[in-house]
Design brief:
The protein is an alpha+beta fold. Helix content is 39%, strand content 17%. α41 (1234-1249) crosses α51. Residues 1-18, 250-254, 1194-1220 and 1502-1524 have low confidence and may be disordered.
Length: 1524
């Protein structure tokens, strides 16, 4: 009731002055045109696999017909509905989110770009390219195909869509450029898909929209910040700006509460008072937007107070409140100071914080996000990468959900550590066939060494190998004594032995195993017997010495012969009886076959071979010259692992080291690359098909691969060897043709293994006959199946083993009947009845499964272990019992055992449980191996946590957010969590990670995160223009600066805004300040190293272009991390070394992360997403240029002068280009905000007035306003100078600054070596607020005496400022010593010298070290060079080069060559007033420039009038609204 009375009273007091609401909006558009939703949807579906992509394309063949009759919204809904046939509900939500983000748009535009490179024939809605020739007509396809073979094949990219036909390499490739869903596409698609199925061509589809809609797309996924600027020095331009007439939709602002009034509710209940309510709300807001600074004692508890306020709201509103408080904090701060904080909340937060810092290292104030336990680092992740994570997780979550795993079990299974396959598998070396030459633990030679494992932890000099009496390091050499390569390896072994390297050395000799061969006919056998003789008669070390001396007798290029052996034996052991040692009856032939058998069983590759601690060395490492260093390196590497084991207590004094080594997870009984390879394919068991009928083959053939797999899993019968709990952990399926010997052998080996192994294995069998399945070629399989259906498990197993033996199949061939082979204990009648009535249809279904899912041809074999497919054995290849043993071990150690333990807790029937273990294991193992999932839990959660419960019986994501509500992380995370909860079903926990005792305002900015969960439509069903950042209700008093905070690889620039975005002062603006930005470039980043030195090739240049224009952008490689960056956009790019010195001296050797084969000389890179693209390039000097240096003094090729697609005003003629190059003044400057741009124009004018030399200005483009960029070309024309806009994105690895002013300072100094082309020798930096009174040519030609740059020291002459000269005391006084502190308003850089001494890299290195401390480098651009004065020398310029009133006395002003408008800390005089007072000519320059700008504007306006659209154009404008 109270509100009802108060309301009229309040409304009376407000005068009716309605004014347009004030605010700021910012939007970001793509550089390319809008891409159709249908194509984006196809790309989204295509990410789930090629098969789905083409099914979708077939479904939407002519969908665009509906576009005309329907509204945009219903056409969009139609697309979503069609996609829904291929996606689950969760994936449809993710698709909507992806369409709102336009995440697939770059992929469409990249295709469009590639099509543009072809180029497309005139007026063609779709066309094909057949080996370089084009046609728009389906009729010409045949003709072009005939001659195609003679022309080279086109280049195909990794992500091209290839029609799933018969994969042949010798047929022509046809690329169709078309827009799916159109008529023209359909006519081409019909012909091409038929031909591709026949296998007469390869059909590739690339998206191509013939006439793209001109309207641009607004992007999302970025943040916008309005930071509050310090107004200590007034730096705002007083030129008036025309206001924009933008109207803003403010409905969504009404729902919030202002000073206790809920305006949304009030408007509903009092619709008649709407106008007055709007006014009341405005009045209240103006009275609350009190920006008066808080006292320190009022700030202390703000973070807890914000948390208390959030916790008092209902759940979903609490998230919105958190967003509101963090994103509008400066105007909410005062209201928070009145909130009371409960003691129990404070206590609970502190307890949880203590627990978090102990368990996961999260401290008060940190912001962390976990999705299903995966840590999402918000500094590196953006909505695009989070969407990828959501999609990846969706596969696993839906899989578990479909398998019936819900609730708590889901999280537990997800968090199971799945052991990633380790490439360094080791073989067990505790084998009798190894002949150990020495034993570190027992040989007397080593008895003086210490034996304790603790010795490992003693400090030694780096690189020293510790001599400890333990067999830590074991080298086993597999040799064939007769091979030439064996000689060097034996010599190397002896070298290790002689030098007492703590290496235990063993040999396995692989020699002829035939009994009748003796030492007189085979040198290998003779060698083995001789060795045994010496070992028996003397000792093993003597045997090693003899081997070496024996091999010394063999000439280079020869092999060991029997004669050499006999001669050696006679000479060394004259008394020995050669016949008794080498002959047929030799006593020294013991265990000769063991070596060969061990070698065969181990499955190792070709001889000679070495194992280090059981791990095989690769063939390249076996080169004897390399091997020595490799072994020593391995010893060093392994030492650290042993040290860790000793330190952790895993390896103790009592342990046997070799046993410890051989019990590690990576030790296997046998090597088989097929089983141990990292390229693994898995079956997907997660479908639940409507039918489970495999008797009807036609029906079965219509199922998709997942459904076929599910039917197989459901109907499979097993031979089991189950655990005592009735469960099996490993399920093997054998696919084979049992009418072939190879198929029978495979199944027999599987059954033998099953009986030998420990319980927990079962084997199923799938028939894959060589021909069409009929009764004759399925006899054995039907017998097995009939036995499964009618007999007990034990009898079936015995019967089948009998059937599979070769004698049984011979009997069957001779006409014996199956019933004659039955064994005792079988129910004969039941078997016969079943066997005689079994149809073969279900076997046809099995054969289909083998073809479609396992990709086997009829008759081929495969083994499947818990869903992992090991397939395509060669006809002769055998998969032995040992291989099955290894496969079981690998499957168990992956995740099967852990899954079984979890499934067991669920308590279900054994058969069902065993199926579940197989299915879950396949699902988890197939999921890409990401980082470790953390288990984040809290001690208490009643007062400090927000909980959102998931919807029941649906797939849900487990999201944990830890955040202090008043931090930059909260500004971003609150928006992200709201959108996440709209897109997917979440179980959300948000912990208030508050900081206590704040001493300053925690946030000094307003913030919006631009992100929407679905495409938004307007009331008339057209699609809305797109997401925009809206700031309404801003306080009008503070001065604001706008910052775009975009994903790492985006380069954005302001393209339209009449206002000064660096100084937004709402008091002086009527209406809305609009800022329109454009995503100008997506960056291609990389790291480049020289292969021979391992160092980055400093000064190496790369160029980036397309096939029609190879030089569009260029860059220089930095020494820091070999980093380089190139500006690009979606499309296919070619990266090359720049013509000139780079290309003369270097060549590209390999590269990765690219889209061309690693050794291809042309590096092709496709940019097709909003994600960062980072490549690695390795180069090498050409042989004849080994001693050349890139940065040496020789002249640069003139190609570089026309660099970076120069934007040249008043361009120079080419013929006298050389002379012009010699004599150009290069001036660099940076400016941000209209005032500094006004100063900048005046500075330019003053430079031009005082020199006859041609001038080229270089401006940092990143922060220039749209108005400056529009007018600079006019100015260049009227005053006859050249200019270029350079830009560089702050590298992700270099410590980021958050304040705009500091970022600009950073650009002044940190990137001088990479901003300008190599041809620019000297550059002069001039601050924007300087006025030049002399010819800068003097400064350019000044001798810097070997220093890379020259700065002017600060003046000392104005005495009254002494107290402000901070460099005269404290740190600076002691650091500089007798040197001066220099000012950074003017400096000259000798870029050649600067690059030669790597000054840029040193400055960046020092910056990286110092900038981590927020209190250092307070004037970044000035403090950094002064701090580095001892490492990078500064030449002090004469004082008259820079005069500024603050520090210099009036007497010296007469001689001043430049005047700088320094801030005066004493008077705080505004710059504009100071300029007019100090520099008389400034006013004249200002007038002149204003006159020029007025002319430009007047020229521009009539031009605009001329462009009034004709009636037909008007029509077009209307149509734009309806397009997608």
């Amino acid at each position: 009731m109270r509100a009802v009375i108060v309301l009229p009273l309040l409304l009376l007091n407000i005068h009716h002055v309605t004014s347009a609401p004030k605010g700021v909006t910012a939007s970001l558009e793509a550089k390319w045109s809008m891409t159709p939703f249908l194509l984006e949807t196809s790309e989204f579906i295509g990410e789930d696999g090629n098969e789905k992509f083409w099914q979708f394309v077939d479904t939407v063949k002519e969908l665009t017909v509906y576009k005309r009759g329907e509204s945009v919204r219903s056409y969009y809904n139609l697309i979503i509905k069609k996609a829904g046939q291929f996606l689950t509900d969760l994936q449809v939500n993710l698709l909507k989110f992806a369409l709102a983000l336009r995440t697939c748009s770059p992929a469409i535009h990249a295709s469009q770009q590639i099509a543009g490179d072809e180029p497309p024939p005139e007026a063609c809605p779709a066309f094909v390219s057949i080996h370089g020739q084009h046609t728009c007509s389906t009729k010409d396809v045949k003709k072009l195909l005939r001659a195609a073979a003679g022309r080279p094949k086109p280049y195909l990219y990794k992500n091209d869509h290839t029609y799933p036909g018969v994969n042949k390499t010798d047929v022509p490739v046809v690329i169709l450029y078309a827009e799916i869903g159109t008529k023209k596409f359909t006519s081409f698609h019909k012909i091409l898909s038929e031909k591709a199925q026949e296998g007469t061509l390869v059909y590739v589809l690339r998206h191509f929209v013939a006439d793209p809609k001109p309207q641009k797309m607004l992007l999302s996924g970025y943040g916008v910040e309005l930071a509050i600027k310090s107004t200590e020095y007034k730096a705002v331009d007083d030129t008036k700006v025309k206001d924009s007439k933008t109207v803003i939709n403010t409905e969504d602002e009404d729902n919030d509460e202002v000073q206790g009034f809920f305006f949304g509710t009030l408007k509903k209940s009092h619709p008649d008072l709407e106008e007055q309510l709007v006014e009341l709300r405005k009045h209240l807001l103006e009275s609350t937007n009190d920006m008066a600074p808080l006292k320190v004692w009022e700030m202390q508890d703000l973070s807890f107070q914000a948390a208390a306020r959030i916790m008092s709201m209902p759940k979903f509103d609490a998230l919105k409140l958190m967003r509101d408080l963090s994103q509008n904090f400066p105007s909410k701060a005062r209201s928070l100071t009145r909130v009371a904080v409960k003691q129990e909340m404070r206590k609970e937060i502190e307890e949880n914080q203590k627990h978090l810092s102990e368990t996961i290292g999260v401290h008060p104030g940190d912001g962390e996000l976990f999705i299903n336990g995966l840590h999402i680092d918000l500094d590196t992740h953006n909505p695009f990468s989070i969407l990828d994570i959501l999609r990846g997780e969706a596969r696993v979550l839906e899989g578990l959900h479909n398998l019936g795993i819900k609730g708590e079990h889901q999280g537990k299974l997800l968090r199971l550590p799945v052991n990633a396959v380790d490439d360094s598998y080791a073989l067990d070396i505790r084998h009798p066939a190894i002949m150990w030459i020495n034993d570190i633990e027992n040989d007397p030679v080593y008895r003086n060494w210490p034996a304790g494992v603790q010795e490992l932890l003693r400090a030694t000099f780096p690189g020293v190998i510790r001599q400890i009496r333990r067999n830590f390091f074991n080298l086993v050499l597999f040799l064939d004594p007769v091979q030439e390569e064996s000689v060097e390896l034996v010599k190397l072994a002896e070298l290790f032995y002689k030098h007492k390297i703590p290496l235990r050395i063993g040999f396995v000799f692989v020699v002829n195993t035939k009994d009748e061969i003796d030492g007189f006919s085979d040198a290998g056998v003779g060698f083995y017997r001789l060795l045994n003789y010496i070992a028996d008669e003397y000792d093993l070390s003597q045997a090693l010495m003899s081997m070496v001396s024996l091999y010394n007798k063999v000439d280079v290029g020869e092999t060991l012969s029997v004669d050499t052996l006999s001669a050696y034996l006679k000479r060394k052991f004259p008394k020995a009886n050669a016949e008794r040692i080498l002959g047929v009856e030799s006593e020294y032939d013991d265990k000769r076959k063991d070596g060969a058998l061990f070698y065969k069983k181990s499955g190792l590759s070709a001889l000679p071979l070495a194992l280090f601690n059981g791990v095989p060395l690769s063939p390249d490492e076996m080169d004897p010259e390399e091997l020595e260093t490799i072994i020593l390196q391995r010893i060093m590497d392994t030492t650290t692992a042993f040290q860790r084991a000793v330190f952790m207590g895993q390896l103790t004094e009592g342990s046997d080291v070799v046993d410890y080594l051989m019990e590690q997870a990576n030790v296997v009984p046998r090597m088989n690359p097929l089983i141990l390879g990292t390229d693994q394919k898995y079956l997907d068991f997660t479908a639940t098909p409507v039918v489970d009928d495999w008797e009807d083959t036609t029906m079965f053939s219509f199922l998709d691969t997942r459904d076929k797999t599910a039917v197989m899993a459901k109907r499979m019968k097993y031979f089991t060897n189950s655990d005592e709990d009735g469960m099996t952990t490993v399920t093997m399926w054998i696919a084979a043709d049992l009418e072939r010997a190879s198929g029978r052998k495979l199944l027999l080996n599987a059954l033998k293994h099953m009986q030998k192994s420990s319980p927990g294995v079962r084997v199923g069998v799938i028939d894959n006959p060589s021909g069409k399945p009929i009764e004759d070629n399925t006899v054995l399989y039907r017998a097995i199946w009939a036995s499964f259906l009618t007999q007990k498990n034990k009898a079936t197993a015995e019967f089948v083993q009998k059937l599979l033996k070769e004698e049984s199949s011979q009997l069957l061939q001779q006409g014996t009947k199956i019933k004659d082979l039955l064994i005792q204990g079988m129910d004969v009648d039941a078997f016969e009845k079943k066997f005689n009535t079994l149809e073969v249809d279900f076997i046809r279904s099995q054969q289909l499964f083998c073809q479609d899912v396992l990709k086997l041809s009829p008759g081929e074999r495969a083994v499947i272990s818990n869903g992992r497919i090991l397939g395509l054995f060669e006809e002769q290849e055998e998969f032995t019992v040992e291989d099955f043993h290894l496969l079981e071990k690998i499957t168990l150690s992956g995740s099967a055992e852990k899954v079984k333990a979890r499934v067991k807790q669920m308590g279900m029937k054994p058969k069902h449980a065993s199926d579940l273990v197989m299915k879950v294991d396949a699902l988890l193992s197939a999921a890409p191996k990401g980082e470790v999932r953390r288990d984040v839990h809290f001690i208490k959660d009643s007062h400090s946590m927000l909980h959102l419960s998931p919807r029941e019986n649906e797939v849900f994501y487990d999201v944990v957010a830890i955040v202090d509500p008043l931090t930059r992380e909260a500004q971003k995370m609150s928006s992200l969590l709201i959108v996440l909860s709209q897109v997917v079903n979440v179980r959300l926990q948000v912990f208030m990670n508050c900081r206590a005792k704040l001493s300053e305002m925690p946030l000094k900015s307003f913030y919006r995160f631009v992100l929407e969960s679905d495409v938004t439509f307007l009331a008339n069903d057209t699609v809305s223009a797109g997401p925009v950042a809206r700031f309404m209700e801003l306080p009008e008093s503070p001065l604001l600066t706008l910052n775009m905070i975009t994903p790492e690889s985006w380069m954005v620039q302001a393209v339209r805004s009449p206002h000064d975005l660096d100084n937004i002062h709402l008091q002086e603006v009527s209406g809305v300040v609009t800022a329109e930005y454009e995503l100008e470039h997506l960056l291609l980043e990389g790291h480049c190293f020289d292969l021979s030195t391992g160092q980055p090739p400093r000064g190496l240049q790369f160029t980036l272009g397309m096939s029609r224009d190879l030089l569009m952008y260029d860059t220089i490689v930095m020494a820091n991390l070999g980093y380089f960056q190139l500006k690009a956009n979606p499309g296919a790019w070619i990266l090359r070394l720049r013509e000139g010195r780079s290309e003369d001296i270097y060549q590209v050797v390999t590269h990765d992360g690219t889209d061309s084969p690693a050794d291809a000389g042309d590096v092709r890179v496709v940019l097709n997403s909003f994600h960062s693209k980072i490549i690695k390039v390795r180069v090498q000097k050409k042989a004849e240029k080994i001693n050349e240096d890139l940065l040496s003094e020789t002249s640069e090729s003139k190609g570089i002068w026309d660099s970076i697609a120069s934007i040249t005003g008043g361009g120079s003629k080419k013929d006298d280009g050389e002379k012009r190059k010699e004599d150009v003044l290069n001036i660099f400057s940076v400016a941000s905000g209209h005032l500094y741009e006004r100063f900048l124009r005046i500075m330019m004018l003053s430079v031009l007035r005082h020199t006859k030399t041609p001038v080229k200005f270089w401006f940092l483009k990143n922060y220039l306003s749209p108005s400056f960029k529009e007018t600079i070309s006019y100015m260049a024309e009227s005053y006859g100078f050249q200019y270029e806009l350079v830009q560089y994105k702050w590298p992700r690895w270099l410590h980021q600054q958050t304040e705009k002013q500091r970022i600009i300072w950073g650009y002044k100094i940190l990137f001088l070596d990479v901003l300008f082309p190599l041809a620019v020798d000297k550059i002069i930096f001039v601050d924007a607020d300087q006025i030049v009174r002399a010819d800068l040519k003097e400064l350019r030609d000044l001798d810097l005496e070997g220093a890379p740059y020259g700065y002017t020291p600060f003046c000392d002459s104005r005495r009254e400022m002494e107290g402000y000269r901070f460099w005269k005391t404290g740190y600076w006084a002691s650091h500089l010593g007798h040197r001066k502190y220099h000012i950074s308003a003017l400096y000259v850089v000798d870029l050649k010298k600067f690059r030669k001494i790597a000054a840029g890299d040193r400055l960046r290195g020092q910056y990286q070290a110092l900038s981590q401390d927020p209190n250092s480098l307070s004037n970044l651009d000035q403090d950094l060079p002064n701090n580095m004065i001892h490492q990078v020398a500064i030449k002090s310029l004469p004082q008259e080069w820079l005069w500024c009133e603050t520090w210099c006395d009036n007497v010296s002003k007469v001689k001043a060559k430049t005047i700088d408008l320094c801030n005066n800390p004493k008077t705080k005089e505004p710059k504009l007033m100071a300029a007019a007072r100090i520099v008389p000519e400034w006013v004249e320059y200002d007038k002149e420039i204003k006159q020029l700008l007025r002319q430009v504007q007047e020229q521009g306006d009539p031009a605009k009038e001329k462009q009034t659209p004709t009636p037909s154009q008007h029509k077009k404008v209307d149509n734009l609204r309806d397009e997608l």
